[in-house]
TrEMBL record:
Record key words, sorted: Transferase
SUPFAM superfamilies in the record: Nucleotide-diphospho-sugar transferases
Every Glycosyltransferase 2-like domain range: 5-112
A GO molecular-function descriptor: transferase activity
Domain of life of the native organism: Bacteria
Cross-referenced Gene3D superfamilies: Spore Coat Polysaccharide Biosynthesis Protein SpsA, Chain A
UniProt key word Transferase: yes
Protein name: Putative colanic acid biosynthesis glycosyltransferase
Amino acid sequence: MTQFSIVTINWNNLAGLKQTYESVAAQTYRNFRWIVVDGASTDGGAEWLATIDEPYAEITSERDKGLYDAMNKGLIKGSATEGYTLFLNSGDFFYDENVLQKVADAIERAPAKPRYVYGDYHLQDATGRLTPAKAKKIEHLVLGMPSSHQAMYFENERLRHVRFRDDFKLSADYCMIVEFLQGQDHKRDVLKIDSPLCIFDTTGVSTSRRFDALKEDMRIRREVMKLSPLHSISLYVLHYVHTHSKLLKAALGK
């Protein structure tokens, strides 16, 4: 029976943390650990977490050095057991109560034990409107994240050998996925589920940080994926134009 480690990073986001907890608690599939890494929240989150009395909850609240330091703490704890780790941070939530069951069934039906499992997702804007988004083929990893990170499941034995790198402030998750999949057989080790697995809240995503992240993505392609400078720069330009076009259309209400 497949076991899941659900890692939730939180800092001063009590409302989002409660939403994530409700989503986790509602799952029909029950073979999971909920690993909460709270950065010593001062908004009541640490106190609220202290009231959680669930056998599946493993909660710590202490200062950290930032998001990816906290995620590495969660990664280490999550990957210490067998199974798969999912990063579902405060404010993130499952698409519905049957997601873990769906993922477990897909893993158990696979001809070989997959290392990396991912699927589709929905985007949620400030009004609550949902927009479906399809996961990309893993062969297109060079273009960017194959899906929302809340829809990705990492096999723990392999996960123990990677970390979120602190020299990438915005794209450490992309870098981790690239390094996780290096040397893996995409046909045997990757399982894509054609079904929505999470809802990603896009509110609060900074425009300036989007463009800064594109620069980090270019570094990852050059330094980690070993693409040529010309190839890396070309992809950066394409992503820059695409992102600028999307923002312009949004501003014009199209």
